[in-house]
Amino acid sequence: MPCPGKPHQAPKAVVSLFIRRGRGLSFAAIILTAGLFAPGLIKSAPTTFTKTTPQPATPTPATKSAASAPAVPLNYADFKKNVQPFLSSHCYDCHSDTDSEGEVRFDLIHDDASLAQNVPTLEKAVKMLTARKMPPMDQPRPTEDEYHSTITWMSNFTDNFYSSGPINPGRVTIHRLNRAEYDNTIRDLFGFTAADDYHPADTFPADDSGFGFDNNGEMLTIAPVLFEKYIKAAQQTLDKAVFTDPSVPPPVKEWDDMTTVGSDIPKDEPPPPIAAAPANNRGGNGPAAPLNYGRVLEHYGSFYVDYNFPVDGDYVFSLKGYASGPAAARGATAATANVLFYVDDQPVTPERAALKVGARANAPAAYEEPKFHVTAGQHRIYISFRNGASVDDFKAALAANAANPTPAPDPSAVIPPPLPAPADASAPAAAATPADANAAPAVAAASAAGTGGNRRNGFGGAAGAAGTARLGAGARGGRGPIGPQPVVPGSTILGVTSIKIEGPLFTNAVDMPERMPQSYHTVMAARPSDTLTRAQAAEKIIRSFTTRAYRRPVTDEEVKGLLDLFNSIDTPDRPFEKSMTVTLQAVLLNTNFLFRVEQEPQPGEADNTHTLNEYELASRLSYFLWSSMPDDELFNLAAKGQLRANLDAQISRMLKDPKADALMKNFAVQWLQLRKVDDVNPDTTIFKDFDPALKPAMLKETELFFNSIKDEDHSVLDFIGANYSFVNAPLAKLYGLDGNFTDDNFQRVTFPKDSVRGGLVTQASILAITSYNNRTSPVQRGKWVLENLLDAAPPPPPANVPALDGEKELTGTLKERMEMHRANPACAACHERMDAIGFSLENFDVSGAWRTKDTNNDPIDATGSFPDGTKFDGALQLKQSLMASKDQFCRCLADKMLTYAIGRGIEPYDKRTIDTILSTMHQNGDKFSALIKAIVVSDAFQKRRGIEPGDNS
Amino acid sequence: MNTPTLSRRKVLRGLGTAMALPFLESLLPCRSFAALSTDTVAKAAAGPRRVAWVYVPNGIDMQNWTPATFGADYELTPTLNVLADYRSKMMVISGLVCDKANPNGDTPGDHARANSAYLTGTQPRKAGGIHLGVSADQVAAAKIGQSTKFPSLEIGMEDGKKASTDSGYPLAYSHNLSWRNATTPVTKDVDPQSVFDRMFTNGIPGETEEARAIREHDQSSILDFVLNDANSVQKRLAANDRQKLDEYLTSVREIEIRLQRAKNEPPPPLPAGAVRPEMAYDSSTEKKVGISTSSDAYPTHIQLMIDMMVLAFQADLTRVITFPFADEGSNQQYPWGDANVPHHGTSHHMGDEAKMALLAKINQYHLTQFKYMLGKLDSIQEGNGSILDNCLIGYGSGNSDGNRHNHDNLPFVLLGKGGNSIKTGRHLDATGVPINNLWLSMLEHTGASVDKLGDSTGKLSLT
């Protein structure tokens, strides 16, 4: 179908090159194989290859062209002449009366009308004949020629029928969640986040793929080993969701302005100097961060704060600070500042903590007490400091020092000169400008002596403070003589920059549900209480969880079944959560969760094409765009029956959601075969410049490129002809781009008009995955283009390809050798199509770098020709000719996207669905979102065919 | 068959296992045990018979494989010479045919076909979805698998997560040797830790009897529930959907049987010296290393998998194993075997002597791994001989010459003596014999006799 307003420009010869693939793939291949035995046919009648989907003799709109009738008349008279003899010799025995096998009857076909009515029967027959499953093995076999002619006629007839009959939405086989869908569904069902990084399906066996994608219902099987993994995953997931750490940390009260903090000293001692040193600038070194000296206690004393504790519970007290002393000044590390927290008159630990010298005022260290139980209400919290291990030690040290004096450090070099304490301790202190703070030596700091264990959730054990010696019991302030810089063990100065109370600490999920992460609430929507029995709470949970897990309202009967299960495993002394997680494992192992079930309203009834209900539609939509379950908005719309009416807005919303990255990860990566990038390993003895960093980069480029088309809603033709891409430094080097690029950041670059870059075909990823380790492969490149951009994959090579004459003497350039290869008529038919495209990309080496000579130093000849004689030269002209066949590309993309969207292979009857999709898409400028929307509103996506006769066999 | 009737209970006791018979009776066909003759039971005292299939993909360099003459005095070829130590316990069988690996009307895709037709003798087709037939190992599993924790064990090296389909055949065909039935491939486990855990952790280490009882009650309640639910869902579905549900039901039931067994048996004792395998982690991907195609960890990985296989036989957790050393079409490179080239690419040697030599290197590297397996099995005493003596291990490929993709004259060597029931130490001429005839014979010597499997036409005498 041409884009509106534009003439159909695809040269006829190009069009005829690209054989459409449909259900007739194997069938077309059979014809081809047959053709190979008569090579003459290929030259004289190339249309042999297009029998299944004949191409027009003259350019016509695609709708018509793809539907053009074969030369043979397709009516009952012709059927009688060409097909009936086969049927009567091979089929009528079993398929011609009311007892017919598999409800397939050929005897009902007796005129044009009944022939048309029996298209499903013919389709079924084509399948069985193509697979050679019929006639049964113990019956006389038709010849291969008989098979071919019968299948050909029937296929032509059904193709023809579907281009005019009612649109058939097809049937999607019940679809087991594949690995990506399982992971995403678990993520969204429980509300896990990226931070959880939880991927239970990593341990599942690989999913099989069909028609190029691993979300094909037919191919997704369940082996016992997979079910074992499901059991493990269900247990793990529910345990992770419920028995988990709280996500919300305990409330924190912090005083970082020390001027607001009270201070105190023992009543029987004179007050020590209390210093506060506010911000300073480093002399001469330009502006620096203000340095907070907090407030300083010299020798002894305490700070305190008053706090109203909200509830009884465990709290953690901590401070940030530094300490200094003579020992530190001498470079020793033994100096300590002995600190103890008090709650009112009660010490938090039995022993004073010895804080190591180490940090400086410009990098205060944290000191934390172990958790401590505090009752609710107003309490005063003290930080008590004294600089000796004990009063006696202190005195002894003083005496020793007096006997053997050691030069005392100049305190001004240690800390800023303390200012006279303001009369009111809470008044702001005057400014001081100390020497360069970095020069301040030996500011002792508190090491986090009391940390350890996971206090927050209350499960871990808290390590005790690394206490040294005891202070007199009950004393909370330091005691000791005041004097000029006594040289004593321990620190003389404690500077405190902030005080913090953290708590209450988490004890259990029941008491503090507000601290629990989303995953906990997803499961524990209710809890037993005085007014709710265990069973009643369980029922609430079952109802809310299962509805989301099954992606539709759970039925009363289902709830009852799960509740019975709960009752059978629950005991009063078992934690409610445990009984609940066990019960809900049955939900995660249930067919209704593991499969996307679309109910058959009337099983067994033929031709009951029906529209999916809104919940089923919501699931199809979310698994298509997000590879995951519907979110609340989709659920709510479905519940109100308004989803179908709001599809356009919902699709736009969904495409903008980060979850739509799944389209890139699951659709694009499989469509473009990007998983192969992992296997790209150019032989570095030949390609010495290959940078291993290119491998992840080339993948990233194509991912970003795809996402740009999706996110910016470009025309899908940009996949072929875009003039931009995304590169980092290694890629820029590979592409020969000038500019400032880094290894980590990808930049969008726009290519000049005559650049060979731009579009998928010349991206390094595509060029690399279609190369061997030691050389490029025009065959693979050509095949990639045919298969993924034009949906015209050549059939695989025939079995037992005869060895080429004189193959060992093959010489010359790669191209010359390939041409000799193509001289064999058995190979030429397909290789002419593949190689011609591949050779035009020969200017790119195995890593995608531009080259003008190949590895043998022979000049590159990037010319090629199509069988009709059309010549072209190089990648640019290849892209031009691809753009000329843009209809074919659009059809290919629509075909692939629909295959992925509905999880089944495209059948001949889908042609009209795709025609409609293309027409809608063209009317909307071929925009990416238009393609998505057209697919979603198509019959294949919205509807489901009932069961046909014979489906049950 | 003239077999004295034995009560099942008696047979089971003879096999030294305890089972929940009423449970099994409801699930298993009586004839499962009919093939067990008194003779078999008697021999079981000296160690049960086991059967295994080791598969190598992409064919073999046949000029370095096939011995020139038949009989006992044949001369070992350069490739087979790797197994020289086991010559007396080995039977080279040449000329076998796997006809269903040929296109027979289908279009190309010899790797997928060779792999899937190998043990099934059934014609794979591209059209019409997945449809094959039961494989030889699953016949054995159904016949002799009830007495062990796992009826059969499917292990391998490549998880297929990166693979693409072979010429339009479903991926299932190139990645599964083992087929429960026409539509259900038995997925293999490629993670040695996972295999180990499945084998040896009935419960949770340190779990009390009471806790275990509760857990098992939980689990069987859950499984009962989901089975019931699935049955009711199934009634509302169309036929092809029902088939998918059947796969589900089969899997759940198998787990249920295993659970039932676990209830009645203590966890299998870990053979002396056996440890849970260590797997290297790739810190960049945070995934286990070595469980995919083209792995650098291949040598470690394959030895761990072989260790698991040996443990499974040693602890009698299964008597039936399939183990492909790589999947059909694999491009694994083998620098450790002096063949740092992609296997599949090299197998298409086009008559190039250098490539054929490299292919022979790969063949020999695989046989070296096989030899490691044999060494382990032969070192564990059982009765008057070794475990190997009670095994029949078939080693071969569904492709002959990887370049031509021919499926006749298949490379095959049989190791082990099937409890001294076969005549080893010779090169057997089986030209034109369907390989399924050999499977029938291997099954017979393992106590799992059937009359027909796939395209078999009779049995190939091994005595």
Spatial sequence of strands, sheet with the most strands of chain B? 3-8-1-13-14-2-15
As a whole number of angstroms, the C-alpha radius of gyration of chain B is 22 Å
* Percent range for β-strand residues of chain A: 5-15%
For the record, give the distance between the C-alpha atoms at the N and C termini of chain B, rounded to a whole number: 19 Å
Largest interface: A-B, 80 and 81 residues
Mean pLDDT of chain A: 74
SS content category of chain A? alpha+beta
User: Looking at the structure, what is the overall shape of chain A?
Assistant: flat
Estimated helix fraction of chain A:
25-40%
Helix content of chain B: 25-40%
Please write the string of helix (H) and strand (E) elements of chain B.
Answer: HHHEEHHEHEEHHHEEHEEEHHEEEEEH
Number of distinct helices of chain B: 13
Describe the sheet with the most strands of chain B.
7 strands, mixed
Q: What would your notes on this structure say?
A:
The complex is a heterodimer of chains A (953) and B (463). With 953 residues, chain A is of the alpha+beta class. Chain A is built from 35 helices and 22 strands. In chain A, the strands form six sheets. In chain A, strands 2, 4, 5, 7, 11, 12, 14 and 15 form an eight-stranded antiparallel beta sheet that branches. In chain A, β20 and β21 form a beta hairpin. In chain A, α16 crosses α17, α16 packs parallel to α18 and α29 packs antiparallel against α30. The longest helix of chain A has 19 residues. Chain A is flat. The N terminus and C terminus of chain A are likely disordered. Chain B is α/β, with parallel strands linked by helices and 463 residues long. Chain B is built from 13 helices and 15 strands. Chain B has a seven-stranded mixed beta sheet with strand order 3-8-1-13-14-2-15, sandwiched between helices. In chain B, α7 packs parallel to α10, α8 packs antiparallel against α9 and α10 runs parallel beside α12. Chain B is globular, with a radius of gyration of 22 Å. At the A-B interface, α2, α8, α11, α17 and α18 of A face α6, β5, α8 and α9 of B.
